Amino acid sequence: MKAHFQYCFIGAGSMAEAIIAGLIQKGKATPAEIAVINRQNNDRLKDLSRRYGVDYPLDKAEAVRRARTLILAVKPKDMDFALQQWGEIIRMDQRVISVAAGISTAWIEQRLGAKAAVIRAMPNTSSMIGCSATALCPGQYAVEKDLEEAKQTFDAIGYTVRVTEQDMDAVTGLSGSGPAYIYYVVEALEQAGISAGLSQPIARQLTLQTLVGAAHMLLETEEEPAELRRRISSPGGTTMAGLETLDSHQFHQTLVRAVHRATERSRELGEAWSDSTVRS
Ligand SMILES: NC(=O)C1=CN([C@@H]2O[C@H](COP(=O)(O)OP(=O)(O)OC[C@H]3O[C@@H](n4cnc5c(N)ncnc54)[C@H](O)[C@@H]3O)[C@@H](O)[C@H]2O)C=CC1
Ligand SMILES: O=C(O)[C@@H]1CCC=N1
């Protein structure tokens, strides 16, 4: 069957939107080459169509059949039902990319009607502006060409790296959830600036420019973060006083624990669904 859509997103939530926005913005696909379906919220599909021009065919099964690549973007807990609905009609000549946390390629393969290529990806919501950090790994039926095409998809929306499947939970805990940790730090810094006497707009702008500047310093100088930090920290100065407070509250260890817990949670999400019924 001739593919009508380059991509059909199964799931129309925040991750699907972030990828759609990035793909269109970077010219990887035209809006007409993208279909999106969800469980029942037609208003959400209309809204995505109005804002991005993507298609939301009323015949959802037809949209699945007519796509070259299916992007599974439902919550892990909804994956089993979604694959009961759509898995049987997916063919060998189609490619399946799952962005779900914790769900293994083998688990997905067992729920497809055909031995289609399955690729697991873990992007993040910075896909929306072409700045994702995405890790990819292949399932057992994915060949080099499938992986390369998946890589090209995610290259269009940011940085892409290939990992083994056993590393995917760690990727999820670090860079999948990662933007949330950074936003959390931004919230705290802005709040700190305000409580120290700055106006909200000034606290926000100074925080954001500090974040952007530090990120560019890391990328452009390629210096170690510890070295860049050392250069800011004059003995007996303000930075050292601030860093000592962070150390005394185990900020470093707390961040490490957060990433480890998110990694463990990704594993738990996979295990929670691993004993549900498999298509015979
Ligand atoms: N939000 C994030 O930052 C990231 C999320 N992910 C993964 O992306 C996936 C989606 O996450 P979100 O977009 O945040 O969730 P969300 O809750 O915003 O969206 C889920 C979508 O799936 C749809 N859906 C549920 N059952 C369906 C079915 N049977 N058929 C078709 N559509 C169905 C819902 O209608 C909804 O549109 C999750 O598995 C998550 O682990 C991965 C990386 C980052
Ligand atoms: O919170 C979650 O489960 C998803 C996976 C990575 C980011 N968001």
Question: How would you portray this structure in words?
Answer:
With 280 residues, the chain is of the alpha/beta class. It has 2 domains: 5-168, 3-Layer(aba) Sandwich (Rossmann fold), CATH 3.40.50; 178-265, ProC C-terminal domain-like (ProC C-terminal domain-like fold, Orthogonal Bundle). Helix content is 53%, strand content 14%. A 7-stranded mixed sheet has the order 2-1-3-4-5-6-7. β6 (132-138), α6 and β7 (158-162) form a beta-alpha-beta unit. 1,4-dihydronicotinamide adenine dinucleotide binds at residues 10-16, 37-39, 41, 73-76, 78, 81-82, 85, 99-101, 122-125, 176. Belongs to the pyrroline-5-carboxylate reductase family. It is an enzyme of class 1 (oxidoreductase). This is Pyrroline-5-carboxylate reductase.
Helix percent reads 40-55%
Helix tally equals 12
Strands, count? 7
Strand fraction? 5-15%
Total number of domains: 2
CATH classification, class level of the largest domain: Alpha Beta
Listed once per kind, the bound small molecules are: 1,4-dihydronicotinamide adenine dinucleotide, (2S)-3,4-dihydro-2H-pyrrole-2-carboxylic acid
Major sheet description: 7 strands, mixed
CATH topology of the largest domain: Rossmann fold
Architecture of the largest domain, CATH level 2? 3-Layer(aba) Sandwich
Radius of gyration: 21 Å
Strand arrangement within the widest β-sheet reads 2-1-3-4-5-6-7
What is the structural class? alpha/beta
Secondary-structure element pattern, one letter each:
EHEHHEHEHEEHEHHHHHH
* Mean pLDDT, all residues: 95
What is the 3D shape? elongated
CATH superfamily of the largest domain: NAD(P)-binding Rossmann-like Domain
End-to-end span in angstroms?
25 Å
Low-confidence stretches: none
Catalytic activity: L-proline + NAD(+) = (S)-1-pyrroline-5-carboxylate + NADH + 2 H(+); L-proline + NADP(+) = (S)-1-pyrroline-5-carboxylate + NADPH + 2 H(+)
InterPro entries: 6-PGluconate_DH-like_C_sf, NAD(P)-bd_dom_sf, P5C_Rdtase_cat_N, P5CR-like_CS, P5CR_dimer, Pyrroline-COOH_reductase
Pathway: Amino-acid biosynthesis; L-proline biosynthesis; L-proline from L-glutamate 5-semialdehyde: step 1/1
Binding site for NADP(+): 10-15, 73-76
